[in-house]
Structure prediction request, 561 residues.
Amino acid sequence: MRSLDLPTDCSPVLKPSTNPKFGDYQANGVMAAAKLLGKNPHQLAKSILDKADLAGIACKTDIAGPGFINIEIDTNFLDELLNHDETETLRQQDNETVVIDYSAPNLAKEMHVGHLRSTIIGDCIARVLEYRGNTVIRQNHMGDWGTQFGMLVAELESHLGAGEKAELALTDLESFYQKAKKHFDEDPEFADHARTFVVRLQSGDPHSRRLWKQFIDVSIAHNLEIYKQLNVSLTLKDVKPESAYNDQLEPIVEKLMRLDIAKDDQGAKVIFIDALANKKGEPSAMIIRKSDGGFLYATTDLAALQYRSKDLKANRILYFIDARQSLHMQQVFHAGRLAELVPPDVSLEHHAFGTMMGQDGKPFKTRTGGTIKLARLIDEAIARAEKLVKSKNLSLSEPRVKAIAQKVAIGAIKYADLSKTRTHDYIFDWDGMISFDGNTAPYLQYAYTRINSIFKRADLDLEDHSSVIIITEATEKKLALKLLQFEEIIEQVSVDCYPHVLCNYLYELASVFMSFYEQCPILRQDISTAKKNSRLELAKLTANRLASGLDLLGIEVMSAM
Ligand code: ARG
Prediction:
């Protein structure tokens, strides 16, 4: 298209064909280009094909309908690509510095399902961007500051005063919070004392800071434990909590006032944003300092934005936060740009997601309406996965069942979330996710295991196997084409940050493999050695892609289950 001097914004819209009737790939962009240039689309398609050098790549091309170009790929070309595993060398490397803000639970309470989606989706994208060669900086913007902590620190003080150890008092963060809240609501003296702690914390008083630090450390340790169980890659060094920006808040507000971006409004400092006006035309108001002098969530986010851009030197800053915070993010980005806290070429991206719903279509809660703790959710998933694993294989020892169930359970929870279009709400359904049927993690983990068992039966080592691929059958070709799409799928996910695209790919790959395996026997007596080895190689590449793809989703595989 370039050599025909077509405008650069004309794209061929090259896609895998949905129907084998139309070849293996389709170029659907000719009609749009022809319309733009006022040309006959069929003629244009013809000139494009005349110019295109597809020798050795396509064995057949034709023009369908008004100007669709159908391309049938030469199997020798696929053989060649797969035999040299060119995908490794074809893999484009990005080299951006990408900051990813995800998980970010509030440390006052135990981690609950409300943090699950950000944690799971953010972690997948961090892995994908790393795979693409970027420098990924994870930022866990934990909520460790604010008035609640005055109350919690006061409660901790009274427990320690009674001779209790901090770790013990805080073993159950949730009930500790309830105790503190009850204390606060019922005992005015305690409430006053708690309020003085808020002030003392802010002024840096060592005694209250020490207590606060004890509380925070225990709470962070709880969260790190959950990350470990969930196979989430966040560690202590990724924690950059809200309090880390305390020193920056005052200067930021001053700067915004000096630049006339923020205004004094009844003692508060406010940024009015016309670009985000509501339906009535009233500008959106973003408070960055309250009239009592206190700073806000938004002020901290502005400071974090500056730090990520100036100190971490990010080219892209991604936020995985609930869609309900969309306006907040827009305000932060808008004010950040105005105040030049971040250069114009840095990409600021809020990748929002919907809410996790229960079977009743309402936000997922316990039967009594409480929030569901992640620790409890994981326990239940493991118990259910154990049952499933046992139902499939009765001969497994108890420790093996436990080890497999852990991976199945975590895989199931993650995959159920990642495989849905992120921007939609999604319904949490135990039976649907912990199942070997359909588009689930156990199905994919099982597909991987099955390929391993083929190698075991042939007394071969999957990792060491290497032989030449010669494609002859249609299902072999279909599998080869799927295998070769891996890198482009990963690239797409790295740009748009929609993990379901990778999930769908892996599900299709596993399904294509299953039909290949049905139609192309591998170990049967009458299959020639060359054919057997070629098919084993295709199976190995499938297993490797499944494992790599699942790994990017944060899901583990096992050679037997
Ligand atoms: N702690 C916040 C919450 O639980 C999420 C923080 C997200 N990140 C951010 N930079 N605002 O809602």
